[in-house]
Amino acid sequence: MPRPAPPRPDLALVPRPRRLSSRPGRFRLDASTRLRVTAGAEQAADLLRTYLRPATGLRLEHADDGVFSLALDPALTGLSEEGYGLTVSEHGVLLRAARPAGLLRGVQTLRQLLPYQALTGRSGTEVELPGVEITDVPAHPWRGMLLDVARHFQPVSYLHRFVDLLALHKLNVLQLHLTDDQGWRMPVAAYPRLTEIGGRRTQSMVGPAGSTRFDGRPHGGSYTRAELAGLVAHAAARGVTVVPEIGVPGHVRSALAAHPELGNHPDRPLDVWTHWGVCANVLGVGDHVLDFFRTVLDETMDVFPSPYVHLGGDEVPTQEWETSPAALARAAREGLPGPRALHGWFIGTMADHVVRAGRRPVAWAEDGTALPPACTVMSWRTPKHAWAAARRGHDVIHADHRRTYFDYARDPGPGEPPAQPGHITDLRTVYGVGLLPPPGEAGLAEKVLGVQGQLWTEFVPTPAHIEYLTFPRLCALAERAWNPTADWPDFTGRLDGHRARLTALGVPHDTLPAPTAHAPA
Q1: Can you tell me which residues the record assigns to a coiled coil (predicted)?
Q2: Greatest extent of the chain over all pairs of C-alpha atoms, in Å
Q3: CB of 443 within 8 A of CB of 422?
Q4: Across the strands, what pairs with 174?
Q5: Active-site residue 128, yes or no?
Q6: With contact defined as beta carbons under 8 Å apart, do 235 and 163 qualify?
Q7: Structural domains in the chain?
Q8: Of 126, 227, 315, 416, which residue is the catalytic one?
Q9: What is the DSSP string of 212-230?
Q10: Residue 153 in contact with residue 219, Cβ under 8 Å?
Q11: What is the pLDDT of residue 56?
C-alpha cells in the first residue's frame, strides 16, 4: 500500500489533533483584525497577543464585532478540561473551549498554524492562517517533562524559554528537579546555607559515574523566590504547572554539606558531591530532621502553588541507617521491621505533611514495593511497577527510563555528544511508550494520569545541549500523551514539517552547535 501523501506544511501539527479537516480559503491577520473576547477568555487572548505582537506588530485589540473570536462556553462539556474547538475560514476564526485551559491549548495550535517565519519575529504585518476545522481533546491530564537544574544550574531566563517550548507541544507540567547531591537550587529563607553552601561545588566529574577525571571548575547557582514566582506565573499563563521536586531522604549530600546536623554522622563534615551516581549519604531520622524538611516543604509550597509536590524517594542506600544507633532506635520506636523500612516511613512522614497542606505528594517508584497510600507514583524502572501501584489504588505517571529518559543518547553514531551510558533512546523508542493497561485489566486505565519525559543533566551543561537531547524526542512523547492512537508513518510525516518550525525557533534538533544565543520560543 502506498504511503499517504504528506500533510500540507502548514498543517504539520504536533501533537496531532483528534479531528482535523481542511477548509477552503485562508484567514488574513492584518492591522484591521480585532479580537472578540468573551468573559473568561482574557488569558488566552493575552497569550495570543504575546506570541503575535513581536512577530507581526499587530495589536489585536478587542472589539465586540471582531471576526477573530475567543469564547469560553461551559456548555461544551464534551471538550473536558483542556479540549477546544477551532474553526478557521477566510471570513473569520472561532476558538471555543469549556475551560480556560482549553483555550490556551487552542492558542498553541494557532501558533503552530502560523507561517514559520512568523515564529522568528521577522514576519511582516500580515500573516495568514490556513482554513481548518479542529476538535481536540487530550488523552491524559499529566503530560510532563522533568528538567534537572541541580546537576547543572540553568538561569531562570532559560526556564522561561523551556516552558514556552513545552507549551507549544501541549505539555502541561514542568517538573523542576531543584535539589540533589551535586547542588541545592531552592531558596529557603529559614536556612540560607542550603543555597550559600549547598548551591556550589568545587568541580564536576568528567565521564560516567566511577570516572577518575574531574574538570577542576567550580559550578554553582540558585534561584531567588522572586525568580521562581515569576517562572510560575509565566508558566501558568501558558497552561503549564511547575511541580517542584525536593528529594528526600537520599540525594541530599548538598543539604548535608550545608547542615551536617541533618546526617547520620553530624560530626563528619561533607562537601557538595562532585561525583555522579548514587551517593551513600542519606538523611538522619531524628525529629529535628523531620522538622527541618517540613519547613523546607512549607517554603517550597509557598512559592509553588502546584497541587502536586514531588518528594523524590529513589536511590536511598540504607547502610548508614543499618549502622546508626539513632536510626536503629527510631526503627524500633516506630514499630518497623528494621532500618531499611525507614525509607518508606520517611517518605510517608513527609507525604502526610504535604497532604495536611492540601497538596498531593508524588514519589519515584524504585521497585515494586508499596509506597505510602497518599502518594502518586512515578514509575521509572519498569512499567510493571506502575501497574502494581495502580492495582494498589495509586494514581500513576509513566516514566520508564528506557523510553522517557532523554539523557541517554539519541543515536549510536560517533558524532553524538557525551550521554548517560546504558542504551540508545531513539525517536521510535520514545514513540513506543506504552500507556495502555495489561490485557484483561482495562479498569486500571483510570489510574493513569499520563506520562513524563526526564532530562537529567550530569552530561548536559548548556541550553543548546538540553534542546538537542530533548528535541525531537519530546515531540514523540507529546504525541503519545495527547493522542492515544499510534500511527508512526503519519507522525513522522508531520514531524518533517514540524522540524522546520523547531528550526525557526532556534532549537538545535539536528546537530549540537557551539553555544549561541537562542531565539525567543
Answers
A1: none
A2: 77
A3: no
A4: 145, 242
A5: no
A6: yes
A7: 9-136 (3.30.379.10), 142-487+497-504 (3.20.20.80)
A8: 315
A9: -EE----EE----HHHHHH
A10: yes
A11: 83
Q: Which three cell numbers stand for residue 398?
A: 509513566
Q: Is residue 146 within 8 Å of 453, Cβ to Cβ?
A: yes
- CB 406: neighbour CB atoms within 10 A? 26
Q: Give Cα separations from 82 to 85, 142, 445 (angstroms).
A: 10, 11, 19
Among 313, 326, 411, 413, smallest CA distance to 363 is for 313
Pull the grid cell for residue 283: 538523611
Cβ(184)–Cβ(194) below 8 Å = yes
Does the reported pTM lie above 0.85? yes
Helix (H, G, I), strand (E, B) or coil at 48: helix
Grid coordinates representing 170 are: 501541549
Closest by alpha carbon to 178, among 227, 247, 229? 247
Written as nine digits, the cell of 423 is: 542504551
Q: What is the distance between the alpha carbons of residues 313 and 94, in angstroms, rounded to a whole number?
A: 46
Q: Can you tell me the distance from the alpha carbon of 68 to that of 113, in angstroms, rounded to the nearest whole number? A: 15
Q: Which letter, b or e, does each residue of 42-68 get, where b requires 16 or more Cβ atoms within 10 Å of its Cβ?
A: ebbbebbbebbeebbebebeeeeebbb
Of 331, 352, 332, the C-alpha closest to 342 is 331
Euclidean distance between the first and final Cα of the chain, in Å? 39
Q: Which residues of the chain have pLDDT under 50?
A: 1-6, 516-521
Compute the residue count for the chain: 521
CA gyration radius, the chain: 24
- Per DSSP, the chain holds a count of helices (H) and strands (E) of 16, 20
Helix pair angle (287-303, 342-356), 10° resolution: 40
Strands (E), 40-136: 68-72, 84-89, 92-97, 127-136
State the Cα torsion 61-67-73-79 to the nearest 10°: -110
Q: Which helix (H) or strand (E) holds 106?
A: helix 100-113
d(CA 266, CA 200): 20
- Closest by Cα among 226, 119, 155, 136 to 478: 136
* C-alpha to C-alpha distances, 158 to 338, 340, 478, 497, nearest whole angstrom: 45, 40, 21, 25
CA dist 410 and 412 (Å) reads: 7
Asked if 35 and 4 count as a contact pair (C-beta separation under 8 A), the reply is no
Sign of CA dihedral 157, 159, 161, 167: negative
Which H, E and C letters describe 379-418, residue by residue? ECCCHHHHHHHHHCCCCEEECCHHHHECCECCCCCCCCCC
Query: How many C-alpha atoms does 249 have within 13 Å on its Cβ side?
Result: 30
- Answer for the pair 399, 378: CB distance below 8 angstroms, yes or no: yes
Given strand 92-97, what is the order of strands in its sheet?
Answer: 19-29, 127-136, 84-89, 92-97, 68-72, 35-37
Count how many Cα atoms sit within 13 Å of the Cα of residue 57 in the half-sphere of its side chain. Answer: 7
130/142 Cα distance (integer angstroms): 30
pLDDT of residue 411: 92
Amino acid sitting at position 378: M
